[in-house]
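Query structure, 434 tokens:
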């Protein structure tokens, strides 16, 4: 509802801006300061509305100069509202990224919006006020354009989200402590159930075996759930342990696909590994065949974390495929290594695809109702892939199957050799996979 009101205000603002261009003589500068008396009737009303908005609202021109700043924006930035008018936005709204680095130049969100003409929403930044105090803020910056589509400025909503962040962090702490504490007794129960099923240490009749096998399966499921909850809580607050190293991904995936073969065999599914034949990457290297030397796809990742990702995608492919095969493939260009896990299973409805990598999201259909799962696997996969500046997405057709793609920044052979030679050197690659 709140955003609806803001959108209406935004539309009115743009309309006033356009009208102003017609009715205000060219040399006279439009003064949009809510406290000045040069405003016309409608604009004065708007100024009153802006003044009463709880969130900070700032309007800048195409050069980044502030032309309007409401009282809340003044409070959050620690600036006197009148003093902000005519000043560059970067001076008044100082922003730091999650690592604490001050955003400037092309990394500054307002500059990005003015340059690209695209809106930005971001909840990860801190605003550093006039007294150098940090406040967690939610930013929503939208470009203002004239009839020809030229960006004439931008309007920003700045919200203090300190309480929300604290609540999120308390919740993540609770989930992480609770799942850690519960994992220990569950592991003990699982161990004792396994002992009961072991002929060498226990004697049980067939009926008891049946019950205990079911109890063991349920306990294993519970153990996985606690482990996934713990991993996702850590992923959310940046505590996911990662020891990146140089990994040659084609070799790594080949071995892993072999190891996972037992899972596809068990379900009567084929299993294949393909190097260099994915069509999804437009600038892919030429297809390799048996007579070609396979290219080396170096990436800088924690192999254990990557194993988690591939295993989860492979397990899902097996779970949601009743016949056909699972294919793991790899390709790449100079910048990016792309690998994929493809199945010939039930597929995913298009309306579910945008939500698939969110926490606890499961497609609601007969397949998922009968197949176990907790909806955390793909969320964890996304978080791990993002840890290495990568990207994960899916293409799928209902009834035909799904392909999960992952792009990771590629290390040149030279860079990989340098890193291998100086193992103690911890320089991480800075290229982004897109
Ligand atoms: P889980 O498998 O434990 O439910 P995931 O996060 O791994 O959790 O997957 C979320 C949902 O995405 C699944 O419940 C399923 O609906 C859908 N899904 C994932 N992989 C596939 C696949 N290969 N084929 C069809 N649906 C899939």
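Result returned for the query:
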């Amino acid at each position: 509802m709140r955003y609806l009101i803001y959108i209406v205000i935004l539309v009115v603002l743009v309309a006033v801006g356009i009208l102003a261009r017609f009715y205000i003589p060219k040399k006279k500068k439009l003064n949009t300061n809510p406290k000045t008396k040069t405003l016309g009737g409608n604009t004065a009303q708007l100024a009153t509305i802006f003044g009463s908005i709880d969130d900070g609202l700032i309007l800048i021109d195409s050069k980044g100069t502030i032309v309007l700043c409401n009282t809340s924006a003044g409070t959050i930035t620690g600036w006197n509202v009148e003093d902000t008018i005519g000043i560059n936005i970067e001076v008044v709204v100082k922003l730091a990224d999650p690592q604490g680095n001050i955003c400037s130049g092309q990394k500054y969100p307002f500059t990005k919006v003015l340059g690209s003409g695209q809106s930005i929403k971001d909840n990860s930044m801190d605003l550093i006020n006039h007294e150098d105090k940090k406040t967690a803020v939610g930013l929503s910056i939208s470009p203002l354009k004239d009839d020809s589509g030229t960006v004439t400025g931008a309007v920003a909503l700045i919200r203090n989200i300190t309480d929300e962040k604290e609540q999120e962090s308390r919740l993540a702490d609770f989930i992480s402590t609770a799942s850690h504490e519960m994992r220990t007794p569950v592991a003990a129960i699982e161990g004792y159930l396994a002992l009961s099923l072991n002929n060498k240490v226990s004697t049980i009749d067939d009926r008891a075996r049946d019950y205990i096998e079911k109890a063991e399966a349920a306990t294993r499921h519970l153990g996985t759930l606690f482990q996934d909850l713990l991993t996702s809580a850590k992923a959310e607050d940046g505590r996911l342990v990662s020891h990146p190293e140089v990994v040659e991904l084609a070799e790594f995936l080949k071995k892993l696909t072999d190891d996972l073969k037992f899972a596809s065999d068990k379900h009567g599914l084929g299993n294949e590994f393909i190097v260099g034949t994915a069509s999804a990457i437009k600038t892919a290297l030429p297809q390799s065949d048996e007579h070609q030397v396979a290219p080396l796809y170096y990436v800088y990742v924690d192999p254990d974390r990557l194993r988690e990702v591939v295993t989860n995608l492979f397990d899902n492919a097996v779970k949601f495929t009743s016949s056909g095969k699972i294919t793991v493939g790899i390709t790449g260009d100079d910048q990016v290594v792309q690998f994929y896990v493809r199945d010939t299973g039930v597929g995913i409805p298009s309306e579910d695809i945008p939500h698939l990598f969110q926490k606890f999201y499961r497609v609601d259909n007969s397949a998922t109702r009968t197949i176990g799962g907790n909806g955390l696997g793909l969320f964890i996969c996304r978080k791990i892939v993002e840890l290495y500046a990568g990207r994960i997405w899916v293409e799928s057709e209902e009834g035909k199957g799904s392909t999960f793609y992952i792009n990771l920044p590629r290390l040149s052979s030279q860079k990989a050799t340098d890193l291998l030679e100086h193992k103690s050197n911890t320089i991480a690659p800075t290229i982004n996979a897109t």
